[in-house]
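Lab notebook: predicted structure, single chain.

Context: the supervisor wants predicted structures on file for every construct in the current expression panel, including those that have not yet been purified. This is the next one on the list. No modifications to the sequence; it matches the entry in the shared construct table.
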Amino acid sequence: MQLLPVGMMSIPKIPEVQQAIIQDDVGKPKLVNNSEIPKLSPGDILVKTSIVALNHSDYKMGVAFPSPGAIIGHEFVGMVVQIHEKTRTDIKINDMVCGLVHGSNPADHGNGAFAQYLRVPADLVLRVPESFNIEDAAAIGTGVVTACVALWESGLKLKVNPEVPANESFPVLVYGASTATGTMVLQLLALSGVRTIATCSPHNFGLVHSYGANTVFDYANSETPANIKKNTNGELEHALDIITDPDSIACCYASISSFGGQYTSLELCPSALQTRRALQSSFPMALEVFGKQLGLSGGYERPACEKTRTEAMARLKMFQRLLDDGKLRAHPVKALPPGFQSIIDGLKLLRSGNVSGEKLILRID
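Prediction complete. Output recorded below exactly as produced.
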């Protein structure tokens, strides 16, 4: 399809200010009514937010990297209402799109998902197919963007993908497979011809199997590493650790082949727990896909990298084809009451640890 420049098209009556959830003076979420509407740059679109999903990072960022005044929130679905005149895209006004933005951003306080309007690069969103439930669409952004970096670019560095599957299957361990990112990764690995070994709580075994896991083990069972090694004949070379705590790290390290392999975590893995020199370790971050410097600290900082952005754009085109063909589905969702106050209440619920096997979402429009 030939992509043509689109003028500064918009629907009428975009307000000058909006409601949003921002960080207060100590990084906690606070509702305000006078946040400015994000300004577009070349390549950007403006989205009127319909539904948001809640992620652990939405409250963790305020704790670890407080940025008073920054709009919180990462994952969204909404309608395109404005396209910058220098944006080359086949996305059109009124299209429903979903994806990820960098909420709680120390370098850009004025953009995040927990707002009535948000700004996002046009080439880093997915168009929601008409056949796809809009509430489900709110729950796929983090999973697909995380997969870009965790499975291929800077994580496990797999040589196979859903459009170029493996000729001969091999095992990959997904620790924490009952999370929203876990179920997305399972689907992508299954489509790539990979044999997936998963861990989760026993009450989520059925869920994880339904998303493509070949074999599932109880993460809390002390025999799980030995059982994984037996199941894979000691040939496991790839482990994705979605949880990243001392128990998950120990399990992954013990499960990987004695000859070595690749361990990828979605949180910072302390160097003291990296006990096997034969393993290569990586810690990719989903926000790297924007290609911009991440001005964080303590191991979370990242330089600007246009290569990561370019590779993510290509992966997202593949994901769009899979979504259009009905080959991907969202994690089970739980809808909270609508409105901005529910975001604050939902983050407290998420932080309590009483959410399992579901993604919290809510409408704000």
